UniProtKB/TrEMBL annotation:
Membrane-traversing stretches: none
Classification of source organism: Bacteria, Pseudomonadati, Pseudomonadota, Alphaproteobacteria, Hyphomicrobiales
Record-given protein name: ATP-binding protein
Source taxon at top rank: Bacteria
Keyword Oxidoreductase on entry: no
Molecular function GO terms recorded: ATP binding
SMART domains, per the entry: AAA
Domain called AAA+ ATPase: residue spans: 48-230
Organism: Bradyrhizobium iriomotense
Amino acid sequence: MSRRGNRTINLPAPYLKRVWLEPSRIADREAYPFCLPIFTDDFELCFEAPITIIVGENGTGKSTILEGIATLAGFDDAGGGKGYRPVDHSDALEKMGGQLSKALRASWLPKITNGWFFRVESFFSVARWLDKLALEDMRMGLPGGPPPDFLSHSHGEGFLRFFEERCQRQGIFIFDEPESALSPARQIEFLKLLRRMEGSRICQVIMATHAPMLMAYPNATLLRLTKAGLEPATLWETDHFKVMREFCDDPAGFVDAALQDE
């Protein structure tokens, strides 16, 4: 349960219902990211389930879409939550989610600005910043206990601990390829976290991933992003699963064929 001003929000996720492109807000159609094939004038993305998973090849625009949505939610497009800006910003980052969000419109019921945008690239900067703040609070005698100390753990362990601490409240949570920091065993733990988030009915999750294990999460809306646009898909229809199945059926033969195909 959360508060929006003085009003308690009792509605279940999803809170963000739809995002769409407003062509009149695009200053330069040739500029990135509007030059990507996905961003046609009728681009639209609807959210009907608490968990939405977007899959697609590199360069199709998955991360850019997530950055744009994160900015619409009031998050920093480099990662973090509302009011957090712990990461150095490059021009490249500013031209992605920040620029896209200026041309996007969104439908919320209601608008939620609690939550977090998780990016592997910025995790250590965010974690280092939070550890520093917690340590300063402890030295000043402020409540909250010992510092989180996320960085004392292994990469995957620190990620999961960070997720556990941030994903217990009502909000919208955006994950950009979380498997980049998770071993297969850690991915199973992440699936369990997703189940708890879905079960709470107060968390909306939007995730981009290349990991078939995460794509297989039940009850999620799975969308495949291609140059032709976004379309619903099953796990078995994704290129990621097809490649992984071929490898598992014959690892040696798969690798040998791949190495010969140059």
